[in-house]
Amino acid sequence: MPETKDKQSVPAVETKDKCPASTTETKDKRPAPAAKTTDKRARTLEPLTSTFSASMFTAADELSTSFAQATPYPHTRIAPFCSDSLLRGVRTEMLERLHYTQKETDIFKYHQSGDLANLDGLPAAEQAQLPCLRQLRDSLYSQEFRDFVSRVTGCGPLSGSRTDMSTNRYMQGDHLLLHDDVIGDRRVSYIIYLPDPDAADASRWADESGGGLELYARESPNSWAPAECPEKTIRPRWNQLVMFTVLPGQSHHAVQEVCGERERLSIQGWFHFPQPGEPGYSVDQMQQLWTDGAESTLSQIAASHQRAHGTQETEFMAFPKCIEDTSIVSSEDKTELRLMNPEYLSESVMTQVASRFADDSHIELAQFLNPAVASALQPLLNAADEHDKVGNGHMAAHGTRGAGWIINGPPVVRRFACLQSAEDALGVQLMDIHKMFEGPAFARWLASVSALALRGRRGAVRRFRAGLDYTLASPDAGSSCTTLDAVLCLAPGTTWLDGVVGGYHCYVDSGDGDASNDGSVYRAAGDDGILLTTPASWNSLSLVMREPNVVRFIKYVSAHAPGSRWDVSFEYSVDE
């Protein structure tokens, strides 16, 4: 899971007169503030036998064998792993004593608490209200449990001074897209599941409820890119612990969107490599993250290249000659542009559009297609979604695409269906629009309203399926030259307007180009880096002049969207 919490913050505690019921004895004694090098053994509140299932430790060798043999990469799940009464106390404290902040970027949307590593920074009175959380945290990072984790995973020594964990509440619509957890010196990832233990299906969530942990294999032994579809899905379950080693380009996973009304409550965290001064520390220990340390740099280069591979088109298709502002649309061009609303071909309207674009460098043109064309197209789009059971609370099944469509990836930075050939009436109409966008007549119209000289174009017809698809603000989502983006959005309905169901188009200033290890630059940029956001809508053309340092993304389309977000998306290279 990506790192999102502020390491300097402490969990906000809602003060109450009574602590939650717990079978553990708590001491009204505030330990000395923990320095970054303090071993958590000094702060363990109770013996491990009062925290964890005794059978878990006796099964360490068996767990180690199954861990090593697990696919698509080494992992294990243990249930039950913890004292039921203690975990119920943890759940009560999480729900009643902690404050959660909703967080949303291109790669995730969920509610998260502060860093539980900083519980010791709380006033003594507030610490006393979190006895179960403190016992669980200290037990997890105790020497004994870290030795158990090392034995099961074969990962070697783990840090006792580096605590890294937080609590998450995934509510309806919340999700976490595909990534590999490679940030800093993380060594082992873990998730503790705490759904309602008294619910009728507490032992296993229904598939249609979402919230499952998806594990992805590599698409091939020679590739670092993840496969198109997950190989395994682990459903939320009360008192379940899931662990896996952090492996660059291999430990790809995602959390499905929560589709039902029940929330997915969990604790996520990481064990880290030993820190300087700790037993087992080595200056070159990070090389262990790669199968062959000597190939680390080459592997990263290969991973970056493969991530970039699969963009709409790798090269711009040049026009015979640079297309510049003509100001007047010829009768021949009007014939080629017959799919457009004729109002946008009138000289007066084109002048208004040009003036607005000159001021803002972007514009939205509603009702862009000819009304007759749009009216014929909309029922075909709706019928495709209805046939594939896409949207309105249903997650599209992996592999759903339709005749003539392929899936564009890799999913570590993008996933959507792309039209390759016209195999039915819908494909024919969409391909006709694609041909218009590709042709010189449309480029001349664009040059007239934008006052830009256009050298080439590339583009695609895309379908973002509800519950599956997105693009991330990754480094390769940018361009090496200034472009004019022309995106015709074809998303029926008005549910999209507030952005809750996603599908919006967002432009972000990537700054110096630094990106997180999962490929996303949006999180590093923050809200200050957002330049423009346009919601999905029906029959609306978005024109945006984009400079090379600007990247863009389509926000994950929720299963609760009314259907797919369809569009015709083109980029035109600008002669500078």
Number of distinct helices: 13
Helix share, percent: 10-25%
- Gyration radius over CA: 26 Å
- Give the percentage of residues in beta strands: 15-25%
Structure description:
The structure is a single chain. With 576 residues, this protein is of the alpha+beta class. It has 13 helices and 23 strands. It has helices at 54-58, 60-69, 84-96, 124-127, 131-140, 143-153, 296-308, 331-336, 347-360, 371-388, 425-438, 440-450, 522-525; strands at 75-78, 101-104, 108-112, 165-170, 175-179, 186-193, 213-215, 232-234, 240-245, 253-255, 264-272, 317-323, 362-366, 405-408, 414-419, 454-464, 470-471, 483-490, 505-509, 530-534, 538-546, 550-554, 565-574. β14 (405-408) and β15 form a beta hairpin. α3 (84-96) packs across α5. The longest helix is centred in the middle third of the chain and has 18 residues, at 371-388. It is elongated and about 85 Å long.
Concise synopsis of the structure shown:
This protein is 23% helix and 23% strand.
Could you name the key traits of this structure?
about 575 residues, disordered N terminus, alpha+beta, 23 strands, nine-stranded antiparallel β-sheet, eleven-stranded antiparallel β-sheet, elongated
Blueprint of the fold:
Layout: H1 54-58, H2 60-69, E1 75-78, H3 84-96, E2 101-104, E3 108-112, H4 124-127, H5 131-140, H6 143-153, E4 165-170, E5 175-179, E6 186-193, E7 213-215, E8 232-234, E9 240-245, E10 253-255, E11 264-272, H7 296-308, E12 317-323, H8 331-336, H9 347-360, E13 362-366, H10 371-388, E14 405-408, E15 414-419, H11 425-438, H12 440-450, E16 454-464, E17 470-471, E18 483-490, E19 505-509, H13 522-525, E20 530-534, E21 538-546, E22 550-554, E23 565-574
Helix pairs in contact: 2-6, 3-5, 10-11
